[in-house]
Amino acid sequence: MGLFDGTRFVSEAEKPRCRVVIVGAGPAGLLAAINFLRREKGPVQYCVDLVETGEDYGALDAAGLEKHRSWMIALSTAGLTALRRVPGLYEDYVSQVGVQINQISIFLGAREIKQGNSAEGVAKGEAGEAYVVDRNFIVAALARFLNKQALTLGSGRLTLHYSHKMMFVDPDARRIFVRREDGVERYLPYDLLIGADGIRSAVRAGLIANHRDFECSVSDIFSRFKSVHVALPPALAANTMVVMPQCLPGMNGIGLPETGGKINISMGYQLSTPCDEALRSTDAAVVAAYLQEKFKPSELPWDEFARQWVGQAWSQTGQVHCSSYHSSKLQLLIMGDAAHATSPAIGMGMNTALADAAALDELLDAHADALDQVLPAFSEARVKEGNALTDIAFYANSFSPAQGVRVILAQLVRGFLSKHLGPSLVAPEPMNELGMGAKLSEMYAELVRIGRLPAVRAVNDAARRRHFELRTGMVKARPSRLPAALGAASALAGLAAGVAALMATQAVSKPLMEPAGGMPLLEVCGDPHKFAASGLHAFEPMLGGSFVCLITQFLHALVLEPAGLLSWGLTIGLALPVSVLWNAEAGRTGASGLVRWPTLLGLLGQFLGISVVFPALWLPAAWYGKGDGAVSPARAYASIALAAPFISLTVALFTLDPTSRAWTVCAGLLGGPAIALLPLLLNLVPAPAVAVAFDEFPSAGALVAKQAAAGAKALGHAYALAGVLAFMGYAANVYLASLSYTSLGAACTALWAEATPAVAFMTIDAGVLFLGLLLHLASTAPAEAVAALAASLLLGPGAACALLLHRRETHQHAEASAEAKMVAALAGKKQL
Ligand SMILES: Cc1cc2nc3c(=O)[nH]c(=O)nc-3n(C[C@H](O)[C@H](O)[C@H](O)COP(=O)(O)OP(=O)(O)OC[C@H]3O[C@@H](n4cnc5c(N)ncnc54)[C@H](O)[C@@H]3O)c2cc1C
Fold first, then answer.
1. Signal sequence: where (predicted)?
2. Residue 258 pairs with which residues in a beta bridge?
3. What are 592-616's pLDDT values in tens digits?
4. Which of 170, 416, 692, 779 is 20 to 30 A off residue 481, Cα-Cα?
């Protein structure tokens, strides 16, 4: 049959030919191909080349296709209308592979709220109709239709290039370069090029390369999800879409029925509020136990669910915004995800992709196949829809839980008022129009007009920006106000206790200084003549001035009584994990402020008591400015090695003759600045270099996770060693105390109620140090502080805190290792 051109009938053979190359045999590309081949009666004869990296799903039988299940997609009015334009396509092909939706169930915890339609659902073709189909099953249905259609048209009209990847566009020669799976390469010429090649579109790359005025952005949807297929549990109705906000802490879920009596459950979390650790476990038993405990909407086959869950990496996808969808210069256009990939949050990506293909067909009709008019008209009609789609999907839900609740309330109130007062008084709720065939650009305009979209945009963009800044180390994490307030309070309390203890020691030190004429400690040490006359410590002047004298005398007072050993032992046991903590944290990537200066803190400790300085200065600094990056393993090990001089000098002090020169030298070393200056050596070990870990570049993320894992492992070892040493010291201390005191009460009396000033000072030191460590643990996990407190009587306070810190780092190590594996897997995984 020919075509009447106004003067005569033009035969098929005489019609001008247009070679259309379509890249991507996804839903958009396949429907576009079907539509071109249907344009038999038009003035142009189209020949289609379909290029696709994957295989032809249309050639697979049911069993073969079952192996390619992906995720269920909800098709609503827009997508169904686009499909139904092609007679027989929906009725005979697509409707055979999916499930009609009759009802929506929203689960708030275990409470089910049924919404919507009658048992029969919305009548076919009516607004609000919904049909659910696996992404790959609809692709198979479209491909089968296309393959059959090609058979009726004769040779040359459709050429399939499956297992071919398009590499680039050659703009001057109007051709594309493709490479077959086996490496064979060739060019394909075109008159019209259609990029339906998904989010990482190579055709779009050609647009970017050849048009300076073409603006395009690809960004993360800011969430990660997994999707499993399990048998539909009896508690859930068939043909029902199940919406499960906050079905697990920090997780939203959706369940879509699928063929074969199954349900496809997808659950995801936002990057700013990560899901619980158990869900990141690689052990199916851990995941199953967690789900069984926490997942309230329904019983599910937990073991099978968990098996599939751990067997897949977290899926991530992106969103695309483009300023134009065509190039007249290159004679090409882009559609579907290539033009407007989006978050699945509102379930409209494929609907819009199919609507793009339908819109192109309608524009060819409207402009009598004149491509010079059709291409700009396509951009004019579809750019606003595509960008409205991506923005509504990303800003429909707020990342702030409080704003999220306000948004839901506003939706309910507006819907109710509009229904009962009438749309002339209150405009309908825009989100209620979703999926009913309304134009997305009109919904977008209404959401902007009522101010909702700009409000959520401000919150979500800020959250995304903040996450990015933290991930890349551009800014430091700010702690919540509570730990910061606790830190400040502990700082003031610690400082006050230190100053009070120093003054008390000074005030009551006259009896201690009896041999020196009963003068206060500072006075004796401040005057070398008086000191020499006292005969207190014959070697003292050789070691330096009053500073060393003060501490040496202090230590001298301690070694003279059993309670001195007890209080000093407690302090050293606690100083071991503290030493690892402050020396290692100082070298974390991103550490700033006082945290980076353990040497300064050590020197200050000489004056006020090291334990007093720790909470007074380190804690608030740690909370306000500690790094959240990795620590180098060498630094972690060196941090515990620095405790060696402390321990050996302590042993010397309590075993040597206090009147000997050796004792004085040891006391002078322990009390003098030499040990406090040792951490300067750690400056030779730099913090791990910052690897920029954009979400878009998973391999950089894997490197960061590996660094974190190595540092956490080493720190875990360092705390373990600190714990063992502290426990040994505690055990020895308890044994020695048992020789001197008949009961725990007697020991406590000697440590505090009847303590000499020096012993009381050390008791305060140990107490403040312990409190500081407990607060440090409580700042991130209050339960850990309680556990440390409980274990301290048995293990000693130093060993108990070290054990908890060791446990924390071991967890960090497991988590970072799992993340490194996951991100590395993601980097290698083909993303849709
Ligand atoms: C979890 C999830 C749930 C979703 N739920 C819904 C929903 O409920 N409703 C809805 O409407 N949408 C939903 N979507 C979105 C929907 O899947 C996509 O919008 C839709 O698949 C886009 O179709 P497309 O043809 O444009 O691109 P794609 O489906 O991405 O197809 C692109 C094709 O191009 C091929 N290709 C890529 N690069 C090349 C190359 N260089 N050379 C040759 N071939 C290439 C690919 O192999 C692929 O086959 C969901 C998406 C996800 C991830």
1. none
2. 262
3. 777 888 888 788 777 677 777 777 7
4. 692
